Predict the structure.
Amino acid sequence: MKFFTTILLLAIAACPVMAQHPVAIATRGDFAMVKANLTKGGLLQQTYQDMKKSVDPWLNRAVDVPVPKDPAGGYTHERHKANYMLMYHSGLLYQLTGDVRYASLVKQVLVKYASLNPTLTNHPEATSSSPGRIFWQALNDANWLVYTGIAFDLVHNYLTEAERRQIAEGAFRPEVDYITKDLKSWFDLIHNHAVWACAGVGLVGIATNNNEYLQMALYGSDKNGKAGLLAQLNGLFSPDGYYTEGPYYTRYALLPFYLFANGVNNVQPSLKIFEHRNGILQKALDGALQQTNLNGAFYTYNDAIKDKTYVTSELVTAIGIAWQVYGPHTAWLPVAKAQNRVILSRGGAALSAALQNTKAIPNMYPYATVEYTDGPQGDEGGVSVLRSGKDKNLTSLIFKYSAHGMSHGHFDKLNIHLFDNGNEVLQDYGAVRYVGIEQKYGGRYLPETKGYAMQSIAHNTLVADEKSHYNGKEQESEKHHPVKLYGKAGAGAVQVVSAADSTAYNGITLHRSIFMIELPGALKPLVVDVYRALSGATHQYDLPFHYLGTAIGTNFKYTSAATQQQTLGKANGYQYLWKEAEAVVRGPLAQFTYLNGGTFYTISSAIGDSATALFARIGANDPNFNMRREPAYILRKTQANCTFVNVVEIHGIYSAEGEVASSAYPSVSAIETLRNDDDFTVAAITIQGKRLLVAQANKNHGAGARHTVELNGQTINWTGPWYVVYDGKALK
């Protein structure tokens, strides 16, 4: 890797940018190909026509370039955002029509920025450590650089030399100098913000023939390779393409990665940037798509917003460029069809043609069981997505045992998240944020993100003594990650992942094993969750299940806080939860059933002697109604070594039209822990009179290790870390 980076650095230093414009987003040849296909219908023609409809009303109007004063959602913020998209689109139309009115529009706006930008200081609404000038945060200024840099490149040949200098020195240099000098440490971060910053500076460098800008964008402000595009590609992704901040931020980072890489590929094809790390950008794109729900919404672990889907502009751009540089991929066609638009480039034109000419486009992206490692070397835990079924009948179980995820990460080691039939049934809250809504703190992250959403109790993982993992300290969490112990994913009746963590709490080892089991004749898989907490001292252990749906019933009696409620706790996220009901459950089995999307879900748990069951709801200490009022079911035990054995059962159908509920009661009637010690954990689950035996080795996880366990006079033998038997037959 170091040798490759050195060669690239020498190559770019020896080849200053001498571009034949346009080159940043597409070349003359690319645009000729697009023009030749504009009358052939499909999404290419539709996108072109839609773009004209949005730009043409501005051809005879003055565009406002106001002095910045508002946060996100306010007039000046939204105007500047609209301005850079207007310039970008108008530049594309100039290349495709030759109509100089489009180029003149871009020039008009850029000249106004050339007058405005040298006068700006930090934005009056800035609240972050990286304040912007045009916008409240520098990240948005980087967005502005990306799109205006491309727009400048698109009209480069229309501008006179004097106009180019005026814009380069007035509009671009103040922004580039500010980002690369005043915010040098931010620009050199390995982070999605810095990806945008590098892309902005690099694309401006390509557009203005400024090799200094391009080298900084590729190799950092000191041009030593410790930052910049190459370092970002090496540091933010694992070898299989998992992006450390999670799929929501993969989506956000892919656009600057792809746009900048595309520009670099056009001016320096010898760098083979799209081949870097065995095609890491293609792996990242596919990884992001695999981590979406059936409706295209990205999984919401870490700071994610639930309603962001793959129809977003970032993925439109990435897929269009990927289609050109990596070749046609049938898997992307249903996504592109749902996006209903393409990028106006060679790749977008080819993708549009493929959508018109492909006889059978799949109904949806081909979701499959996938496992991703985390960390640049793939040795910092990971994420597994276990899947059963297909198309609309898909069940997806996410097990997150990854690294923290930098500043957008959450404190939730060994967290699970469940989707079924396209519905989220065990949720991850994501972030408390309303992007673009000025009334909600200017669209920024609300305080409840750190106060609640980041805290461990907000996730489906074990919490000890009402304290978040790593005491909620990011610097400490960043140092550690769980370790995957064993797993089997993909084909077969059993899929399983087991991971452990001994760093989230001092003196406590957490060990969780998740089994997705397809029983013979069953329509849906069964999820068996074995969660062990090991300690030499007594602790209070809470295991929450943040379910979405309507509570239907329990097999235990509880006391409801029907007239007066108290918070579940005082800190670490507990202060945001109302305690709605409580029960002391005497063993051996606790069951809670809820309804979501016409399907019943039951959480069955082995209790042992006793446990406390709590029903809670988000919303306490939230006077501004920033958070969604969603429920949680929490099991609580107080002891030293503690094991939760839970079964999540998917069953039955409810028809509101027919007023009929079938199979509304769970099939699980008993869960017994037959053995649980340092060597083995064995649980027996009774399902409609038949026995499901789930066993695991707690020490020796080798694939060839042979194990023997005596259970009530019966001997069971198996090879490997786990063993599952149903009705006397081993399942594999």
